[in-house]
Amino acid sequence: MPIMHEQLSINTSHPVIARSFEYKRFTYPWHFHAEFEIIYTKEGYGERYVANHMEQFSPGDLILVGSNVPHYMKSALEYYHENRALSVTGVVIQFEKEFMSHAINNYIELASIKTLLDKSQRGLHFPYPANRMLVRIIENLPSYKNVERIANLLLLLEKMASFKSVRTLGSPHYSNSMSVYTDNRLKKVLSYITLNYTKPVGLEEVASMVAMNASAFSRFFKEKAGKSFMDYIIDMRVGYACKLLISDAMDIFQVAMECGFNTISHFNKIFKRQTGLTPSEYRKQFQ
């Protein structure tokens, strides 16, 4: 399933969105965006995907998703039966990547919030019922405006930072290859890779999209992305493989082919090199 780059209507003039929601079911696809996001599910259950992690969610679920971290909420099958009186409700809070960045990065009083936001790059979960004190602040945030909204968001982040039983969702091996997507000069290339990374993608073909020869493009890409062109594609393929292995809908050979690997042996070798586990060992963690 291709990943979608969502563009939110958040900017320096309006850095925070806080709204209550009520849907028949979650419908938004596997996606990421530059903004941080807090999702509180008051009612609803199904599967929650964050980074390379999947687990069941239920009423009271609360997560913080970092900038450019892929995520997806999937309602249970019962929500797709038209005659069932089910709904999902809760609150979503989104705030810009550079929200209060000078203060958060420099003021000692806000150091714990900086640590929290850094940790959210693998996704964070705040278990129910211990999260009820956080939920009280979250449920009130949509009613606040202007300075009150910003002040209460800072209060919420401070409380999240000191939350004792927070859980990190993405594995220690997870690498967020979406983080360079916001560089305007790479946007065209990375958009193309995002749509085609499971297919053979030639270096010269992609280099021509930005009017470079292959060697110049390789240097340019590594400087901006922090990794080689091929390593970037491999990270995307392995990340997609993690998602498919968690879902348990395909056998390992099918996962390898779906993610663009030519042979099962090559897939097993690359997957273990990237994650420290074989595909079958990785799958067993979620069974």
How are the strands ordered across the major sheet?
A: 2-9-4-7-10-11
Beta-strand content bin: 15-25%
Q: Overall 3D geometry?
A: globular
Counting DSSP E segments of at least 2 residues, the number of strands comes to: 11
Q: How is the secondary structure organized here?
A:
Elements: E1 4-5, E2 16-23, E3 31-32, E4 36-43, E5 46-50, E6 53-57, E7 61-65, E8 71-75, E9 88-95, H1 101-106, H2 111-119, E10 124-125, H3 132-140, H4 146-161, E11 167-168, H5 184-196, H6 203-209, H7 214-225, H8 229-247, H9 252-258, H10 264-275, H11 279-284
Parallel strand pairs: 1-3
Antiparallel strand pairs: 2-9, 4-7, 4-9, 5-6, 5-8, 7-10, 10-11
Helix pairs in contact: 2-4, 6-7
Overall description:
The protein is an alpha+beta fold and 287 residues long. Helix 2 crosses helix 4 (146-161) and helix 6 (203-209) packs across helix 7 (214-225). The chain is built from 11 helices and 11 strands. The protein has a 6-stranded antiparallel beta sheet, with helices on one face. Strands 6-5-8 form a 3-stranded antiparallel beta sheet. Strands 1-3 form a two-stranded parallel ribbon. A hairpin with a 2-residue loop joins strand 5 and strand 6. The protein has helices spanning 101-106, 111-119, 132-140, 146-161, 184-196, 203-209, 214-225, 229-247, 252-258, 264-275, 279-284, and strands at residues 4-5, 16-23, 31-32, 36-43, 46-50, 53-57, 61-65, 71-75, 88-95, 124-125, 167-168. The protein is globular. 40% of the residues lie in helices and 18% in strands.
